[in-house]
Automatic annotation (TrEMBL):
This protein's UniProt keywords: Kinase, Nucleotide-binding, Serine/threonine-protein kinase, Transferase
Documented EC number(s): 2.7.11.32, 2.7.4.27
Chain positions recorded as ADP binding sites: 152-159
Family, as annotated: Belongs to the pyruvate, phosphate/water dikinase regulatory protein family. PDRP subfamily.
EC top class named in words: transferase
Taxonomic source organism: Paenibacillus cookii
Superkingdom, taxonomy of origin: Bacteria
InterPro entries assigned: Kinase-pyrophosphorylase (IPR005177), PPDK_reg (IPR026565)
Protein name per Swiss-Prot or TrEMBL: Putative pyruvate, phosphate dikinase regulatory protein
Record's function text: Bifunctional serine/threonine kinase and phosphorylase involved in the regulation of the pyruvate, phosphate dikinase (PPDK) by catalyzing its phosphorylation/dephosphorylation.
Length: 267
């Protein structure tokens, strides 16, 4: 088997492959794998597509993660994995079989049911648009329309967390906490349980901000990334969180999914 310089993890799905990719990304965070590409192959319908995919992965020395509901396509992957000596991981198969065995039921075997165009789908799309339009405090009036309000100093992952929660169907506003900026009065009108304060270890935030300055070509010694400034901002943020009586989540070393999971527990 020929080893390529860039290793590949192929996501094979008869829908869009989002579930398998999420599992792959969560797993890869546990490793330091350089030059590893995640390649998503969606809407697979024919066995020849699987053959081409498996041969490509075999050539590159990778593995295949799949979410396939059609029995003939699942069998094709198994046969090709044996023929080409390619490791595969079936994400849905064991769970589907467990449900069949436990509840004596038969699956619909229809691809893409998770993303069908139903009311829930359009609610998520609306939530994503809401999060984008109200990122970083663009419209303080939206605070009273939101399901979740995220507060935190700069670079504590407010924006990606907002988008992730929006994909769960929650309308999210995130607002920057800055000592020189008076918090909007609308925050005091929000129903309890909607506001969440985000905090982080000061030294880690210094590193994050320094990397941000570096990416922008700005001097690393800027006041924005100094430990003194960061500590002052975090202290001010905590005083605001205490005043509002909102839950505080420490995002230090947490993945976006983990922080979102903590927030969703409140709902």
């Amino acid at each position: 088997m020929k080893q390529a310089s860039t290793r590949v993890i192929a996501i094979c799905s008869d829908a869009i492959g989002e579930t398998a990719e999420a599992v792959a990304m969560a797993t890869l965070r546990q490793f330091e794998l350089a030059n590893t590409e995640i390649k998503r192959i969606m809407n697979v319908r024919h066995e020849d597509e699987i053959t081409r995919l498996m041969e490509d992965v075999a050539e590159r020395g990778g593995l295949v993660i799949y979410t396939i509901v059609q029995p003939e396509l699942r069998e094709a992957i198994k046969e090709e994995s044996i023929r080409l000596n390619v490791r595969t991981v079936d994400i849905m198969g064991p769970m589907m079989q467990a449900v069949i065995d436990t509840f004596n039921d038969t699956p619909k075997r229809l691809p893409g049911l998770l993303h069908r165009l139903d009311e829930d789908y359009f609610r998520r799309i609306e939530a994503v648009e809401f999060a984008v339009n109200n990122d970083d405090g663009k419209d303080v009036g939206a605070i009273l329309k939101a399901d979740i309000i995220l507060l935190g100093v700069s670079r504590v992952s407010k924006t990606p967390l907002s988008i992730f929660l929006a994909h769960k169907g929650k309308k999210v506003v995130n607002y920057p906490v800055v000592p020189e900026l008076t918090p909007p009065a609308q925050l005091r009108e929000v129903t309890n349980g909607k506001i969440f304060g985000l905090t982080i270890d000061a030294e880690q935030l210094v590193k994050i901000r320094s990397e941000r300055l570096k990416s922008l070509g700005l001097p690393l010694e800027a006041h924005y990334a100094s430990l003194e400034r960061v500590q002052a901002e975090l202290k001010y943020a905590h005083s605001l969180f205490e005043t509002l009586g909102c839950p505080v989540i420490d995002v230090t070393d947490k993945a976006i999914e983990e922080t979102a999971g903590l927030i969703m527990q409140y709902f």
